[in-house]
User: Which sequence fits this backbone?
């Protein structure tokens, strides 16, 4: 039986680490993670006890806490959910990308310090120093300062995630985020892929922006920060 391509979105970190981003994967056939300076994310193949045993070996005692994508926050014995971050998974399946209303530029490793500063200001703990190795990043500078950015995260056959969408608090309300996300939508659709993203369940302003750009809610999914007891 052929797998439904949409089902890949149910365990995006795992499927990315098994396919397009396998070169980043640390772990085995049951549990994998990104290097800590790429993304603080781990994933298991399924919710079995064997997979969690593998995850425990992978994380070890030196790194007791990791950010994991799981379908539900119920964990096996010996694990604690330090924090559950309910997210909405949104997908855009239209072949026609929205217009880009601002001038955007490609970002690279030379911009990493200001990218880290902007994501820290916006409390985006997922962004790490080597995150731009996962895909394209775009930004907007004003007076020599990075004031908005967005980039690509998980990637697997047919799909690319948009992440790290943020704007300096002094520059919000100008439509910068919409232009940056639109620019990435152009790039992703030109590759014949479908863009998707995750947004906090209670972030109604961001959800409204994404809906205007053509994204539709697919399902709920949780980021869960887990710790081995």
Assistant:
């Amino acid at each position: 039986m052929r797998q439904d391509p949409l089902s890949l979105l149910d365990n995006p970190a795992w499927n990315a680490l098994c396919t397009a981003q396998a070169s980043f994967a640390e772990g085995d056939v049951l549990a994998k993670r990104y290097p800590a300076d790429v993304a603080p994310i781990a994933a298991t193949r399924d919710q079995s006890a064997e997979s969690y045993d593998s995850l425990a070996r992978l994380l070890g005692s030196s790194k007791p806490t990791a950010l994991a994508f799981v379908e539900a926050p119920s964990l096996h014995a010996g694990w604690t959910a330090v924090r559950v971050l309910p997210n909405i998974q949104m997908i855009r399946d239209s072949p026609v990308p929205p217009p880009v209303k601002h001038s955007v530029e490609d970002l690279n490793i030379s911009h990493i310090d200001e990218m880290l500063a902007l994501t820290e200001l916006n409390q985006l703990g997922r962004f790490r120093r080597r995150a731009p190795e996962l895909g394209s990043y775009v930004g907007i500078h004003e007076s020599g300062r990075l004031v908005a950015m967005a980039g690509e995260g998980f990637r697997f056959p047919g799909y690319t995630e948009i992440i790290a969408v943020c704007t300096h608090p002094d520059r919000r309300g100008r439509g910068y985020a919409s232009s940056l996300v639109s620019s990435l939508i152009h790039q992703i659709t030109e590759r014949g892929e479908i863009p998707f993203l995750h947004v906090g369940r209670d972030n109604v302003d961001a959800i409204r922006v994404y809906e205007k750009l053509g994204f539709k809610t697919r399902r709920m999914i949780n980021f869960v920060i887990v710790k081995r007891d």
